[in-house]
Design a protein that fits this description.
- The protein is of the alpha+beta class and about 500 residues long.
- The chain contains 19 helices and 26 strands.
- The strands form seven sheets. It has a seven-stranded antiparallel β-sheet. A six-stranded antiparallel β-sheet has the order 7-8-9-10-14-15, covered by helices on one side.
- Strand 14 (about 270) and strand 15 (about 275-280) form a beta hairpin.
Length: about 500
């Protein structure tokens, strides 16, 4: 996805940008008679222009030093969220917790931190906020004390009825500490009249709607749950005698665990000293696996929804070449998320693959006054063209998606400035016309370029010779699963569940 900016301490960066915007509105930062514009805004604008990962969750039961293994699992899942990380562990007598608003290696920077997280049971979370702001109070896992003891949860996904649930509970006296929809689940568990925690979790989850892949930590059990549509992935693995669950199987690989199967849509799996026992309390509904996991989010070395991500992305690239062929000299990718689809495009088209854009993986903050501001700095911070590769060439550039199109436009401008004689843009997914309400941080419908512009209008806006998207049928034919098992709402505008009128990332934040 062109322009996804991976910045260290992204939560601090966002907060700084928000403060800058407010300060500028008040007109309080000046250099002479001119307002000072912090270069952080360039980076943050680039962040906000694009689709972002959801969250990564991990859980393990029955392993010595479970927290250390959870740390490694979160490290492998870092691509799914960089705003915060946390681990909760249990030794059967006490619950331990540590979390912070940084990346995994910064939150757990000292080995003594992990040593204090004792026990053979642990859950962990990498956060990218899809409901609730990037505040430290929203960092997960969330931990509560209630009538049955301690309970912690880590959540990947987004509840579509969070607003109405929270309003109703607040009217009845509930007090919330966060603006995350995940806390609603804990309140529902605590309010349940059922006899044991397993039944209480089932009772709570029957009341929520939307997308959830969850791991709960009780004093002596790990509970994994997935919504009946199966929007977000959740895999089950084994490490000797230990059970492991994670958003992606790449988290199994780093600790040497073996992938067994997926937690099934609608399954609640309770793992403790008695082994694993599964419950299926939900009504049967059609599956709605998030297609964007294959297009962009998941790591290529992961297995999700039963398919290898690298294999699917190559198929998408090959299908794109069949549907949208072009006469060109070279094919380049927008690194890194479109690399694999680009390889597939080259394999099918026979056009030579070249590295035409270099990505800077070590992006920090910039503080540049208006006089010094470099045109299109946000794009140049992340990418730089390889002039020797591009000069005097007809270039096909492959990306996994176009969101607003602003960053894509800047990349095209860079390619032309580097000497490309023709630029042909190919996208390994259909046009994005609608936002997501199931756990993807996506712009509003009005901000999505394809929601209001035709393909030819987008082509003219981007200033490319040709523009070609992968068709929706072509995309859905690349998987071993039935195409009807996928959620394609962002491409079709047809949502598999009812969406409340009061929805969106900051809906709970804005009412506080």
């Amino acid at each position: 996805m062109s322009g996804f900016l991976q910045i260290k301490n992204v939560s601090n960066l966002r907060l700084q940008a928000q403060q800058n915007v407010l300060t500028q509105a008040e007109g309080s930062i000046k250099f002479g008679s001119r307002s000072y514009i912090n270069g952080v805004e360039d980076a943050c604008q680039m962040i906000e222009n694009l689709i972002h990962e959801e969250c990564g969750i991990f859980g393990i039961y029955g392993a010595k030093k479970a927290a250390e293994l959870t740390y490694l699992g979160l490290y492998a899942l870092q691509h799914r969220g960089q705003e915060g990380a946390g681990i909760v562990s249990s030794n059967g007598e006490r619950i331990h917790q540590h979390k912070g608003s940084k990346e995994v290696n910064e939150v757990f920077f000292h080995k003594d931190i992990l040593n204090k997280l004792k026990g053979n049971l642990a859950i962990g979370h990498n956060r990218y906020s899809t409901t609730g702001a990037s505040s430290s109070v929203n960092v997960q896992p969330l931990l509560i004390k209630y009538k049955k003891g301690d309970l912690a949860v880590a959540h990947n996904g987004n509840l579509t009825n969070s607003y109405s649930l929270r309003i109703a509970m607040e009217k009845e006296g509930s007090i919330f500490q966060t603006t995350s929809d995940s806390e609603i689940i804990l309140h529902l568990v605590a309010r349940s009249k059922k006899d044991n925690v397993e039944e209480m979790i089932q009772d709570a989850l029957l009341k929520v709607k939307g997308a959830f892949s969850l791991v709960f930590c009780t004093m002596d059990s790990l509970v994994a749950a997935r919504d009946p549509h199966g929007f977000r992935p959740l895999a089950l693995g084994r490490l000797k005698d230990a059970w492991v669950v994670a958003s992606e199987t790449c988290a199994f690989d780093i600790i040497g665990a073996k992938y067994e199967r997926d937690i099934q849509p609608g399954e609640i799996a309770v793992i403790n000293r008695n082994g694993i026992k599964s419950y299926f309390p939900f009504k049967s509904v059609r599956h709605a696996f998030c297609i964007f996991e294959f297009i962009y989010f998941a790591r290529p070395d992961s297995i999700i929804f039963g398919d290898n991500v690298d294999k699917i992305r190559r198929r998408l690239g090959r299908q794109l070449a069949k549907e949208k062929p072009v006469n060109a000299d070279i094919v380049i990718s927008v690194p890194d998320s479109s690399n694999t689809a680009t390889l597939g495009y080259c394999e099918e088209s026979g056009i030579k693959y070249e590295v035409g854009l270099i990505r800077n993986h070590y992006i920090g903050r910039t503080f540049i006054e208006p006089e010094q501001k470099i045109r299109d700095l946000d794009a140049r911070i992340k990418f730089n063209p390889v002039r020797g590769v591009l000069k005097d060439k007809k270039v096909v550039i492959v990306d996994d998606s176009i969101v607003r199109g602003t960053t894509s436009k800047k990349l095209i401008k860079m390619l032309r400035a580097a000497g490309a004689t023709e630029v042909h843009f190919r996208v390994s997914s259909p046009p994005i016309i609608s936002p997501c309400f199931y756990g993807i941080d996506m712009p509003t419908k009005e901000e999505l370029v394809a929601s209001s512009k035709s393909v030819d209008q987008i082509r003219k806006y981007l200033d490319v010779n040709t523009l070609g998207y992968l068709s929706l049928p072509g995309m859905l034919s690349m998987h071993s699963l039935d195409g009807r098992d996928f959620c394609v709402a962002c491409f079709s505008g047809k949502y598999p569940t009812k969406i409340e009128a009061n929805s969106g990332k900051y809906i709970l934040e804005n009412r506080c």
